[in-house]
Amino acid sequence: MAEREDVYFTSGPDRISAWLYRPAGSGPSPLLVMAHGLGAVRTMRLDAYAERFRAAGYACLVFDYRNFGDSEGEPRQLLDIGMQLADWTAAVAYARTIEGIDQSRIGLWGTSFGGGHVITTAARVPGIAAVVAQCPFTDGVASVRAINPVTVARLTALALRDVVGALSGRPPVLVPTVGKPGEVAVMTAPDAYDGYLELVPEGVELRNEIAARIALRVLTYRPGRLAAKVRCPILFCVCETDSVAPAGPTLRYAAKAPRGEVKVYPEGHFAIYVNDAFERAVADQIAFLDQHLKAC
Fold it and tell me: Which InterPro entries does UniProt cross-reference here (predicted)?
């Protein structure tokens, strides 16, 4: 059996593209449903995580959101929070139909904006066995406060233009997902531009753009508030110097999760994906999963 295969499932009217990793051995396997953060796609190092989890005995279903990457959906590069949460629900439903998967041992793994989505999904979808939320976006207010006010004002103006245009049927007003300090982009922290681009494989073209209207939506998205309703074990992997998803609010929300666990890393938001920080985070995540997902 192939270690990784291309699979597809439906969310709304669209086909979602995913990778399915299967571990060696026989018998029903635990499975992690996995997806990325804001504007990011699975080729941006989610394969590195999935390969480690597969080697540790876990199947992985790694998908691209609608409107992004290899998945269908129009208009392209439109991030709709409700649609992305529906994609998570559809992915879990599909995972439960895969042959050779133990339906009682399905977990969620999300990072950055996806780290917020897994908190929301675990609070709403019954039967999730365990959750890993890496450098999770937990509070839109805190994240917006971390952005230069001038940049916020300029993004807001573009977002309003995008929303008005959408009402008239015009294509989205696109802005860079990540830029350098002083530029107009959704993420402009000093470590954002180089850190984000470091996740893109050599030779792969990244669409560094996203519909501007997300700048209005992100302020009211506070998935950390649902941590108290997550009844399964959940691991929060928190970066101390996180410039995108500030650590303080995340730690406060994590403390309210009934079965929450926390690992803190002396890195920024983008450093956790690579090099030694990646190795430490993955080791902690596998130890957590071995305790709560493999043995449950």
Answer: AB_hydrolase_fold (IPR029058), FrsA_esterase (IPR050261), Xaa-Pro-like_dom (IPR000383)
